[in-house]
Structure formats: structure tokens, C-alpha cells
Amino acid sequence: MRKRVTVLAAGLLASAVAVALALAAGCSDGDNGEKATATPQRATASPAVTPSPLPDLRTLDLSTQPEVRDLAERLGGQVSAEEVIYADLTGDGRDDAVVPISSGGTQGDLGFIVLGYVGGELKALLTEAPREGGVRVAVSGGSLVESLPVYAGGDLPGFPSKIKSVYYAWKDGSLVVDHEEVIDNPSLPRRP
Hints:
The protein is α+β, with helices and mostly antiparallel strands. It has a domain at 78-184. It has helices at residues 2-27, 66-75, and strands spanning 85-87, 96-102, 109-118, 121-128, 136-140, 143-150, 162-171, 174-184. The strands form two sheets. It has a four-stranded antiparallel beta sheet. A four-stranded antiparallel beta sheet has the order 5-6-7-8, with no helix packed on it.
């Protein structure tokens, strides 16, 4: 045991001497043999990098987002900032944006897109553009609700006899259809 301690101490002493010699060589200015004194350097901690907060969707011009712009162009519609619905549909404590694409006329909305932050990036969470057009979108009880016209034989354009409501819920990282309901159109004009 004593021999092991002696060997260990000798090894430590040799290491200390090597470090002292290296420091002495590094502190010499090399011109006149005078030794410069080392100035102790204080270690400074790098400031912690904090992620910048994500912008509130209400402050963004959503019509300029590529997915929104592309959908509006494809459907021949437009975005009205006043019609955007803000609600937390993902349960992350941040509002998502439901952006209807308006026909600009009596046809109503042609479709909609839902935008929200996923992994720190603004992404399209859902895009809907039904063939029938005339879609209405709302948020009720924390669920996204899409209302679609259901036409039967003899229905006049703009006056479907039934309305289908599609309820979406956030499951496994995406907005999916939770359930659907079809009801008689309460706004249908009565025939004499």
C-alpha cells in the first residue's frame, strides 16, 4: 500500500512540475529572458440563450402566410381579417387561428385553414375546401365546427334542406373529425 501511495505521489509531482514548466515557458516574452507575470483571467459565464417568444397570431397578417395565400388563390377567394376566429384548439394554452376563405359574395365561405404553432413554427393544422362551398366555420365548446350544406332533389341553390356539422378535436398531434351531425336546415324558407 505504501509503495502505491509513493508511486501516485511521484506521478502527481511530475505532473505539477510539467505544468509549472509549461506555464513558465508561456509567460516568457522571449526577447530578454525576463519573465512576464501572468494576469489571472476571471472566467465569465456566457449568458443563457432564451428562446424568443412566438408572436401572437393576432398581430400577424395571416393573409400573407404561404398556406393561406395559396388556398385563397386556388379557391378564388379572399381573406378578411375581421372573420378570423382565434381559439386554443390544440390545448397548448396559445390561440390558434381559423382563417375562412370568403367568396366575397352571397356564396359564403369557400373553405378555411387553421394555423397554429407546432414545435415553435407556424403551421397549417387543417385545410378544408369542400366542393359544395358555402361552408361555415365556428368554435363551440372548444371544438372546431364546420357546417356544410346538404342538398336534396328539388332544393334551390343556396337553400339546402339539411345542414351537416363536422366537429373536430385535437388528437395525437392533429385536428381530426370527432363526430358529425346532420339536421334539417333551420333557415330554410317555408313554402306556401
